[in-house]
Amino acid sequence: MQRPVIYVLIALAFLAIQPHVSLSRHYFVTHDAFVLLVFAAVWLGSMYWTPRAALPQAAPSVRLVLPVAAGLCLALWAGTHWWMFDYPLTRDEHMVVFDAATYAKGKLAEPLPEEWAGYAKALVPAFLLDTPGSALLVSGYLPINAAMRGFFGLIVDPALMNPLQVAIGFVSLWWIAQRVFPEDAPAQWLTLGGYLLSAQVLVTGMTTYAMTGHLALNLLWLALFLKDRWWSHLLAMLVGVLAMGLHQFVFHPMFAAPFVLWLLLQRRWLHVAAYGAVYLAGIGLWLSWHGIVIDWAGVTPEPGKEGDIGSTLVERVLPLITRIEPLTIQLMAYNLTRGIGWNALFVLPFLLAAGPAFKRRDPIALALLGGLALTLIAVSIILPYQGHGWGYRYIHGVLGSVFLLAAFGYREIAARDRAWANGAAVLLCAVTVLITLTANLWSARSFTEPYVALTEIVDAQTTDFVIVDDLVHRNVVDQVRNRADLSNRPLILSRRWMTNEQLEEVCLRGSVTVIGAVQVEQAGMQLAPSEEYKPLPENVCQTAAEAASSQS
């Protein structure tokens, strides 16, 4: 049992240390390798010693679970503001806030004002919906996550939404664990422990990422599915359609498909037909969503980019499937290493021990494994490079499956040696709390702080416009943060996406401040310019005017 875990860790580490320049490698070198070494040391140590301890023999009750869920929600809400600064670090996160403000007004998109025609990429450098001339300021993501946040924010603090979803996921997972392990209280506790000790669940729950919603809705879906009543299946179908529309429709079907296959093997034809019809309609809706937005705004699309099902498949889905990433294996090694290190340390070894449950063809274990496998295969083909992520965010929606499979593995080990299984579980939980969970929480905060400081510098400018010299550092482009209605002042533009003529025009429109190397270093970020980088002068308007006059 111990050797396979060490082999997996060695293989992942070997693949990850190969020469390669990316954010994934940066994470591995600066943080994830340390967590991996801690894991390997503790797991090797468990071969020789584990504490004499036992997991609780009484199953977790509703009187315990509900207060814990409430406390978890409140703690993450406070942590969103206090620990993570209520700050959308990445462009993905910012676009949630960007779209939420639009949806809260009852609109599907904001038009790009005529005076800013040609400046769309400079104002919003990434993830805009592809329309002629970038005529609409709305993201290319599906709407449910942002819409929920927008309408949620009309009632209470929108920062409460993701923590509330974490709590919903926790309660749903408890109900599922009761159903899956009705006579095994330690397995139920271990399942919940995996959730509560997951730095990935906790930190992502303090952000605006849609992944928290994917996990919560998948767990709610599974709880309804396992309830196995006509009304619970109808609700599960509704939850599934919502889950597909969170931001990318592919994640939920990968999770749900093996369970629908289980119904097929049981010859429950009516259920299979109902799920198939509803899910096909849901996929059709979300594949057509961008066309709905374009039609609503009255924009005439370019030929082949109408936003309907056919054009969406050709323009957006097909390139992802056919594109070949030569570094897929190495990037997936980084991803899996980060995923292992950002979750409780018992998860991997116990999950690997679940093999006998698969051999016995336990239907729930096989369905959980199938969803995990389909997700890993899909993301390795479609998008092996995750970029930024607290853990491995592309498997976030199936983390509940991972925790349940780890509990299956615990049961297999406990059937042979319960004392060792309990001792190993307690040891790995303790090290998770004392070392890796603490290190991951601190890593999230310390990584975010310089970006918060730089945003504060940008927002403090009193000029009409701020031009962010985003060639000085690859992530500085994410400082270009405007509202969808462009009502914020100063208005922020990206140097990378402006021509010299546009730069001169902006100078004529009002006062300009340049945010460049000085401010980046002041915020505590290391400079990482390209070789051909030339700093944009702080008196950029004067320089542009002199250049224009010399040319004339």
Count of helical segments?
A: 23
Strand portion: under 5%
Which class do the helix and strand fractions yield?
Answer: mainly alpha
Gap between N and C termini = 77 Å
Task: Give, in order, the helices and strands.
Answer: HHHHEHEHHHHHHHHHHHHHHHEEHEHH
Unreliable sequence segments: none
Rounded to the nearest angstrom, the radius of gyration is 25 Å
**Major beta-sheet overview:** 3 strands, parallel
List how many beta strands DSSP finds. 5
Q: Would you tell me the overall average pLDDT?
A: 91
- Helical coverage, percent range: 55-70%
What is shown here, in short?
This protein is mainly α. The chain contains 23 helices and 5 strands.
Walk me through what this model shows.
With 552 residues, the chain is an all-alpha fold. The chain is built from 23 helices and five strands. It has a three-stranded parallel sheet. Strands 1-2 form a two-stranded antiparallel sheet. 46% of the residues are buried.
